[in-house]
Amino acid sequence: MEQIRVNDGSKSYQIVNAQGDELCVFTFNPSDVNILERYKKVVDSLEAAIKEIGRDGDAPEVLAKAQGIIREKMDELFGRDTSSLWEVCGPLSPLDNGQLYAENILEAIGPVIEAETKQRVDKARERMAQYTAAYDKK
């Protein structure tokens, strides 16, 4: 079968822990215009899970359900299976600073998405300016 290759804007990111050990590698398009909406859904799911745990305590079934939802939303965010990320610990595992593991991951990914989106939008504006410059002079 023949292949047609297209540039989907994706990049690969190595996710490492504080010691520099690789946890996983994700390939996704950080400037996909839909990623911001998906990112917000993950944040909303995490906040809802925290509230539910606060109401219902640490019942195992509540934790399992909440972690399942967060895993699902993270898969949607990246458009790929993120299970390798959770091999280290579950999404709702508290870290030594009190932050949840999933929260830590989102805080690390957010600036990447923001920076890549800004950079690519700026490039697109520059490119479009070349074509519209002649019309701006009139």
Give a short synopsis of this structure.
This protein is mainly alpha-helical and 138 residues long. It is built from 3 helices and 2 strands; from the N terminus they run ββααα.
Please provide a written account of the structure.
The chain is mainly α and 138 residues long. Helices cover 56% and strands 9% of the residues. The protein has a two-stranded antiparallel ribbon with strand order 1-2. Helix 1 runs antiparallel to helix 2 and helix 1 runs antiparallel to helix 3.
Describe the main β-sheet briefly: 2 strands, antiparallel
Strand order of the largest sheet: 1-2
State mean pLDDT (0 to 100 scale): 88
User: Gyration radius, to the nearest Å?
Assistant: 19 Å
Distance between the termini: 51 Å
User: SSE string, helix = H, strand = E?
Assistant: EEHHH
Low-confidence segments: none
Indicate the percent of residues in helices: 55-70%
Query: What's the helix count?
Result: 3
Please give the number of β-strands: 2
* Fraction in beta strands: 5-15%
Shape estimate: elongated
Structural class: mainly alpha
